[in-house]
């Protein structure tokens, strides 16, 4: 499997899965994609139906990472996708499924269900990919005798998923910046209660943007970056995207009886990583009818799929909402889909994303390419705070099921795209306990708390408070990496 950049540089070079695993953007600023998507045969699809999650993950990943020996990859997936790691299930009997399908009911003739992706250690779907990444990083670094210091900024989900994936891993340290006293008590406790010596929580005296600016400043110091082997685990990481392909297959098998049926998925979206994985599953041959992109008030993606206009937002136009993990101003994985939409023409992708940088967006409305969005199965919708509150209340009353704010955005939009006879699977991206304030508002009661999280906020916390200044952060990192 060879990987290419969406912007076309180094077209003659070979990049394996392992080559791009630890890197970020391609050197021309593009994103990596396989030179061609592997197709799944009818025989394979039939055989995969019976597999465990771990073995299904092996089958799918092996098509994208032929440079990793089969036995090693099988061992990695079996160690990653265990009922012990994905133990925070609603129903204990479902733990072996890793991503159980929770049936709600039939609406407008369409069976409606939730695919539970948030039963991992941090109760958000990011664990699905990040746990694999932790094991893949450790494996690859050990093979090449290397070490890695991950530097990141978080306002919640990503940072904690990265820490829980990398804790205790040989050859890896995590330096995670978060805004001091600005996260919820639950999220703070989730991260800061980790006592592993390779995890460093840095509470920055500032806001989330300050944390992000510091990460950028450190990453732009190329000498420091090289000397201290600084890397990232952001959402453009290819391995994260491909790990997410697995649960589209798993969800399909759970919602259907035979491989002649089609299903639709609704995906609460921010950086377009999750739904990009759905697109890839469809390109591999999974019978997907529609991919419904659900946004909150930050509707960059909904606007594109409705109008053909992609217009990134300024920070002043980016709203802080009650589904905060979808509060984005631009969608960092979107370029991967645009590459396919334009018939894989890197010169045009380069031009469009130059326009994004220089003019703040692009307009495909008049071009024939936009009409092809439907051929790829994409439709969209957006949601507001009032919609979320209604959806949470309604699902609780009708189906006795508590959902989080992001899943509620998905459910609201899914209901606008139901088709009789076609199962609609809404991806559940987080558990309600992470966003308790809105649950209390909607239901006038406390969110459900998985047993493992009882007393979390009372655990001792380990973190370092630093001023919002890159020099202080560099000095701290240097003192711990000893280079
Ligand atoms: C990250 C996240 C999303 C958005 O996923 P993308 O891959 O960025 O589109 C949605 N919901 C939750 C709970 C998340 O943590």
TrEMBL record:
Residues with PTM N6-(pyridoxal phosphate)lysine: 126
Domain Tryptophan synthase beta chain-like PALP residue range list: 96-345
EC number: 4.2.3.1
Catalytic reactions on record: O-phospho-L-homoserine + H2O = L-threonine + phosphate
Record family assignment: Belongs to the threonine synthase family.
Keyword Lyase: yes
Top-rank EC class of the record's enzyme: lyase
Cofactor list: pyridoxal 5'-phosphate
Pathway stated in the Swiss-Prot or TrEMBL entry: Amino-acid biosynthesis; L-threonine biosynthesis; L-threonine from L-aspartate: step 5/5
Keywords for the protein's UniProt record, in alphabetical order: Amino-acid biosynthesis, Lyase, Pyridoxal phosphate, Threonine biosynthesis
Organism: Paraburkholderia rhizosphaerae
Any one Gene Ontology molecular-function term assigned to this protein's record: threonine synthase activity
Secretion signal span: none
Presence of the UniProt keyword Amino-acid biosynthesis in the record: yes
Threonine synthase N-terminal domain: residues covered: 2-81
Identification of the protein by name: Threonine synthase
A biological-process GO annotation: threonine biosynthetic process
Coiled coil: none
